[in-house]
Specification:
Structural class: alpha/beta
Strand content: 15-25%
CATH topology of the largest domain: TIM Barrel
Bound molecules: magnesium ion
CATH superfamily of the largest domain: Enolase-like C-terminal domain
Strand order of the largest sheet: 11-10-9-8-7-6-5-12
Number of domains: 2
């Protein structure tokens, strides 16, 4: 038996995060605490991302409110798949309680703001070797022009990830991939989710026809979607947002069985969720790829 308590939280971004999904100003979630009979404590975080097919904060709060004050391991393992952020939060709190570990230190990719602001922000982030930039937000020609400036501004040996959040038309995706392939250096590590979730076959064809690798993100939000894309033959990169991917133990089992090219990535969670996600990343992320957790500069100091 574990006693269970929870507390909702809000964290404001320094500047709103602009992506193809819209404008995001405040990160909201739930911090939960499990206390074992021996007095050991495990912290967990529920950090929903409903535009990535997770439950909403309201659904997560409703779930927490209907639980009794004392819960068991069975309660945790029976959380339904429609609440993937809850599955992650409860199970990672329980894992921390039974086997506490320090946060692993992993090379991370820094998230740049969309548009021209990326160029202004870059100088203060040069301690990172890998960067991620959101595309598909402004008109194509405008973004290509900023992209060329960004590539020139990056220190030698840097890697750049382009993330379209599923927002490109097929023709625009081809223009981006052609542009990336034509660069002399291999500066673009991958193009993330160029097309919408229902266009897996077209993304597979792009992956076959261009040298710049493609990563799936929105297509593989949870473990069932990850399994489905793998079964349909996807062998490119998988971006894994552990905090909304559901049960950590089931995710671990799947990734250990199939050894896919995985890049673990943040959902702008707090240090509690990040620690649990990085623990999985230390075991399961592709050994030569940075994890996507360079996001602290997005928050107001608190
Ligand atoms: Mg993405």
């Amino acid at each position: 038996m574990y006693s269970f308590e929870f507390q909702p939280y809000q964290r404001r971004f320094q500047t709103p995060l602009v992506t193809k999904h819209g404008i995001w100003e405040i990160r909201t979630g739930i911090i939960l605490q499990l206390v074992g009979e021996s007095g050991k404590i495990g912290w967990g975080e529920i950090a929903p991302l409903p535009w990535f097919a997770s439950e909403t904060l309201v659904q997560a709060l409703d779930f927490c409110r209907q639980l009794p004050h004392k819960i068991t391991t069975e309660t945790i393992l029976a959380i339904p798949a429609i609440l993937p952020a809850c599955q992650f939060g409860f199970e990672s709190a329980w894992e921390e309680l039974i086997s506490p570990q320090p946060e692993p230190i992993l090379a991370s990719s820094a998230l740049l703001p969309a548009g021209k602001a990326a160029l202004e922000r870059l100088p203060e982030l040069l301690n990172y070797g890998t960067f991620k930039w959101k595309i598909g937000v402004a008109p194509l020609n405008e973004e290509l022009e900023i992209f060329r400036q960004l590539v020139t501004a990056l220190p030698a040996g840097s890697q750049l990830r382009l993330d379209a959040n599923g927002g490109l038309e097929l023709e625009a995706a081809k223009i981006w991939l052609g542009e990336c392939d034509n660069l002399n250096s291999k500066v673009v590590e991958f193009l993330e989710q160029p097309l919408a979730v229902n266009q897996l076959a077209a993304m597979q064809e792009l992956a076959n026809n261009y040298a710049t690798p493609i990563a799936l993100d929105e297509s593989v939000t949870g473990l069932p979607q990850l399994q489905a894309c793998y079964e349909q033959g996807w062998r490119g990169i998988f971006v894994i947002k552990a905090a909304i991917a559901g049960s950590p133990s089931r995710l671990r089992q799947f990734l250990k069985t199939y050894q896919i090219d995985a890049v673990f990535s943040s959902v702008l969670e707090t240090a509690i969720g990040r620690k649990a996600a990085l623990k999985l990343a230390a075991e399961l992320n592709h050994p030569h790829r940075a994890v996507g957790f360079g996001v602290e500069h997005w928050f107001v100091e608190d």
